[in-house]
Amino acid sequence: MNIPALLLKAVCLEVERDNEKELPFYERGIKVDHTLIEAALCSLNSSPTKTLPQNCRNDIIERTPDGLDRRIKEKLGSDLRTANIISDLLAGAGIVEVIQVKNPETGRSVKGTRLLEQWCWESEAEGAEGPGKKAAEDISDQIISWRRDLHRIPEKGFDLKLTSEYLKKQLENLGTPYKPCAGSDLVGFIEGDLPGPVIGLRADMDGVAIKEETGLPFASETGFAVADSNRAEVTVDFIGSFPATVNDDMACFLEQVPGAYFFLGSKHPEYGDEYPHHNSRFDIDEAVLWKGTAVLTRAAFDFGF
Fold first, then answer.
1. Helix or strand holding residue 186 (H, E)
2. Considering only CA atoms, which of 132, 122, 126 is closest in space to residue 291?
3. Domains of the chain in sequence order
4. How many CA atoms lie within 13 A of 209 on its CB side?
5. By C-alpha distance, which of 44, 41, 48 is closest to 3?
6. Model confidence over 203-214: pLDDT tens digits?
7. Each residue of 85-139: pLDDT tens digit?
8. SS3 (DSSP) at 217
9. CB atoms within 10 A of CB 15
10. What global pTM score does this model have?
């Protein structure tokens, strides 16, 4: 069971802060590094109760019942007492709680380690497509509603007053702080309780100077047309507060930072969505919007470091 890379990095930062030194370091003769921390976290998270006993009485693994000490030794080949040390370090950093539990094999009361809820994660089997899928499905109707509202008010170039005011209102409703910049542009901020890297998100907001001829009940009311995927992009990426894909600037961005570009297909000929970008009848299949949200959210969990 692999731990999300960003989560592991956050845990390591907490351990370093609590001990006032960088990994790796030695504690009571045991080397503490990213690999040991990962082994402990994965062992605890794989337990149904997120809790494991520590049963070490000797260094003979065959005589040691199942627990955190045995699982870490099986993963790393380390000393059985390693579990006791990493348990104390993780507890000091606020990652786990040290408790008393009963060993199911012996009935004895022994030291136990419980992974705190905020540091648990779903496995691939539990989470299917992973973090963000259920949340994206749950707000699918809201995502479509945002997209249709924006579809009604496309604007051209940098004069995007209607769009900007709509986005401000939605961000305020979500409790997301923002700052206006460069005319109609907005920069939103989402901050967690833990220190760590920052992910920059981007979305286009402008429309095209042609008359829309889709006949949709939420067609443009401004004389301009959407005629491309920008309204869907700003819906998923900006209001929904998920990482954004980029278009023509991507090659320039990749010269400075690691990244990736992918397309999420939204063409559905059976529904009449068969016209290309910048066509007066262009539209998208709204059924894919939540999927884009889920994919981008998963990308933040897996690659946001």
1. strand 185-188
2. 132
3. 5-121 (1.10.10), 125-303 (3.40.630.10)
4. 4
5. 41
6. 777 777 777 777
7. 999 999 999 999 999 988 766 777 888 999 998 899 876 544 444 555 666 677 7
8. coil
9. 23
10. 0.48
